[in-house]
Amino acid sequence: MSVPGSHAGALIARPRLGRIAVHFALLFYTLVAIGPILLILINAFKSRRGIFNEPLALPTAKTFSLIGFDKVLAKSDFGLYFVNSMTVTIGSVVLVLITGAMAAWALSEYKFRGNGLLGLYMAIGVMVPIRLGSVSILQLMVNLNLVNTLTALVLVYTAQGLPLAIILLAEFMQQIPRDLRDAARCDGINEYKIFWSVILPLVRPAIATVAVFTIVPIWNDLWFPLILAPGNGKQTITLGVQQFIGQYVVDWNAVIASLSLAIAPILVLYILFSRQLVRGLTAGAVK
Amino acid sequence: MSLAEPSALPRSRRPWTHILVFLAPAALIYTLFSIYPLLDTIRYALYSQDEAGVAHFVGLQNFIDLLTHPVWADQFRNALVNNLIFFAIHVTVQNIIGIALAAMLSLPQLFGRNVYRTLIFLPTMLSVVIIGFIWQLILSPLWGVSEGFLRSIGLPELFAPWLGQESSALITVSLISVWQFVGIPMMLIYAALLNIPEDLVDAATVDGANHLHIFFYVKLPLILPTIGLVAILTFVANFNAFDLIYAVKGALAGPNFSTDIMGTFFYRTFFGYQLQVGNPTMGAAVATMMFVIILIGVMLYLFGVQRRMQRYAL
């Protein structure tokens, strides 16, 4: 409250009131953003009665129950789907990072005919979604005998992740001072060794950012698992949840528990890497 | 987003082998599993399969069918119009909320800025499929969470099974998607706002402009390029969206195809669904149309919007 008549008081009080309004608005939207996710997480630990009678309440001694998780683990191969998702994501991310860093290095370090054109060629994939080639990708995988394998997914996701990885890494590599690699060259170290032991350690922060940007869309994707590996125990977790919920749609405990299980890994990843992600997003906008 | 000038070649010799070794793996995987399938899909769209599965060259017949044949044209037009509405809702709602949140977050010395930012961005990280199911549960009349919420604020009569009604299903799925992805415009605009030089704001303050004036006449024009970028990213993502509709409404994009967009139309055409038989060549034609639409959007952005906006850029 500002003191009437006191000019200085009014000046201080007004921005404070404004600030309170801003916090109120931000708090409100934060609740809008995470409320639905929290709602699912807390109801995953309740009995059916608890879910329906008091959906907004935290689980109490009376409503606490793990029956949803028991059902999911008993009725579906959640563990297997999780391992599949891990395999596909890690495999793709490692391939994207290694081949992407190599290509980014070649494009940013060496001057050769067609360099600019090749850079543009690699950048097409940033704007044109790889999904549009699905008809042909499926045929290709049929011919290569890779349908219902995780290899098919790894190959497609690597191709999908490469363009952005190359652009981000090349931008970062250009900022490495010339002296470093010139000094290494003067010492007679070969180009591969320079890349591996001088450049790669230097771009580690960028690699973390690229890794997060690559991992999230792969882990979350439904399209390619649905088209390339929908069965045979090769489902990823996103597809597995989709199929599971389709089957047990009336079992609320199981549905909510399966959603929570699917949310958990990304939640952990986000808590660990939100700094890299935010930095990547905000630095990208500077350009 | 082009790569900057490569630095000079090391004196000694032309390192062709190095360049090849460094480039080959990425170029091979990318060409074989991204560019080649795209081009091959476009080629395939010019063929038609007979009952025996043999493909014949038919020229542009698939596209003519898509645009004029009653079996295809209605579905195609419906999906295209729905997709445009889907995009229009995204661009307006997402940008308004995104700008408002970014403007608040970029206030100097805001307490708890990182916490807000991190939490508001959280839904963007999760799978569209999971988000779709979560909202399906929340909006479900069976569970009654949203109905109970509306009752608690005194507006019980507002409740309706929004996802189930033909009139509101498309708007509802659009808003679910906006809710999920609003973090991206927020982050990008937030970064753009932080990059505005303080002298500009100071100069306006000296000239007697108040906070609102400064925001609308100084800051907003400066972040227009970012809003343009958000718009084109959203356009590309929207015109190849699929997961959300498939999770919430299935491949038939009900009720009565009211949530059908290009992605679900493509899936049904390519794979078939229930009574409809899959048709890969026609699917390729739909994918090609999506490619053309996305290309038009990107071109409009590159040559129209971005060029004009660069005048404002610093």
What does this molecule look like?
The complex is a heterodimer of chains A (287) and B (314). Chain A is 77% helix and 0% strand. Chain A has 13 helices and no strands. In chain A, helix 4 packs parallel to helix 7 and helix 7 (150-173) runs antiparallel to helix 10. Chain A is globular. Chain B has 314 residues and is mainly alpha-helical. In chain B, the strands form 2 sheets. A two-stranded antiparallel ribbon of chain B has the order 1-2. A two-stranded antiparallel sheet of chain B has the order 3-4. In chain B, a hairpin with a 5-residue loop joins strand 1 (47-49) and strand 2 (55-57). In chain B, helix 3 runs parallel beside helix 7, helix 4 packs antiparallel against helix 8 (183-194) and helix 10 runs antiparallel to helix 13 (280-309). Chain B is globular, with a radius of gyration of 24 Å. Mean pLDDT of chain B is 87; it is low at 1-12. The chains are: A mainly alpha (287), B mainly alpha (314). At the A-B interface, helix 1, helix 4, helix 5, helix 6 and helix 7 of A face helix 1, helix 3, helix 4, helix 5 and helix 8 of B.
Main attributes of the structure:
heterodimer; A: 287 residues; mainly alpha; 77% helix; 0% strand; globular; disordered N terminus; B: 314 residues; 4 strands; 68% helix
Short description:
The complex is a heterodimer of chains A (287) and B (314). Chain A is an all-alpha fold. Chain A has helices spanning 7-43, 48-53, 67-75, 78-109, 115-127, 134-143, 150-173, 178-186, 191-202, 204-220, 223-228, 237-247, 252-286.
Work out the number of β strands of chain B.
Answer: 4
Uncertain ranges of chain A: 1-12
Q: What's the SSE pattern of chain B?
A: HEEHHHHHHHHHHHEEH
Query: How many helical elements of chain B?
Result: 13
- Largest interface by residue count? A-B, 105 and 96 residues
N-to-C CA distance of chain B: 17 Å
**Count of helical regions of chain A:** 13
Strand content of chain B: under 5%
Oligomer: heterodimer
Shape descriptor of chain A: globular
